[in-house]
Amino acid sequence: MSPPAHPARLTAVLDAPLSRWLWLVKWLLAFPHYVVLFFLWVAFVGTSVVAFFAILLTGRYPRPLFDFGTGVLRWSWRVGYYAYGTLGTDRYPPFTLADVPDYPAHWDLAYPERLSRGLVLVKWWLLAIPHYLILGFLLGDVQVTWVTGGLIGLLTLCAGVALAATGHYPRGLFDLVVGLNRWVLRVAAYAALLTDVYPPFRLDQGGGEPEAAP
Q1: Model-level pTM greater than 0.85?
Q2: Does any domain span residue 66?
Q3: Which UniProt keywords are given for this protein, alphabetically ordered (predicted)?
Q4: Is 47 part of a structural domain of the chain?
């Protein structure tokens, strides 16, 4: 039986061929995105505070703030996919919060019509703690733009070395890295109050989301 579907959906297509050496300078090429994402994440923190009180009072996440928050996570994922969160494409990420259909990396989250007023009080600081411990290992010091160490950074470095040596991205390695990023984004969405669906302790590998259980 297939695992139940999660409202956060991360998909990715491995581009081929990939440059053997471009990954060495992507830290510089992606720098403009890092600057923009810094300010977007500052704004996201502010809007999340507003959303916290809105959910507490009304049981709803204001749709404009929800679209902004999911857009910030989507943008972060695209940059991570291009740079040192995956190295899965050489196509430069677009500067937009919206989904770009022809870009090889996508992330989306179904809008919840109702959210629990009680859960909003304990999600991010209590219920998500077990996942924070895992993220601390996966991302090193848990940087949301995926530019630091940890297991994902180490595996991405291995992918870069494989590209330099062979010109190919090992498929098994790609599936694992994307699966780890999928876990990270699910937890980020939960901790940011964007969903009440608790992230599963499950590594769904590969570029496609698992099918829902019948």
Answers
A1: yes
A2: yes
A3: Membrane, Transmembrane, Transmembrane helix
A4: yes
Query: Are the beta carbons of 182 and 200 closer than 8 angstroms?
Result: no
Report d(CA 142, CA 88) in Å as an integer.
21
2 is a domain residue: no
Q: Average pLDDT in the 195-214 region? A: 87
pLDDT tens-digit map of 15-71: 999 999 999 999 999 999 999 999 999 999 999 999 999 999 999 999 999 999 999
Domain assignment present for 199: no
Residues of the domain holding 143: 8-191
Q: How many domains does the chain have?
A: 1
What are the b/e assignments for 142-171, b being 16+ CB within 10 Å?
A: eebbbbeebebbebbeebbebbeeeeebee
Burial of 50 by CB count in 10 Å (0-12 exposed, 13-18 middle, 19+ buried)?
exposed
Beta bridge partners of 9: 108
CB 77 within 8 A of CB 181: yes
- In the chain, the percentage of residues whose pLDDT exceeds 90 is 84
The answer to whether 182 and 12 have CB atoms below 8 angstroms apart is no
Q: What is the residue-wise DSSP string for 121-160?
A: GTIIIIITHHHHHHHHHHSTTT-TT--S-HHHHHHHHHHH
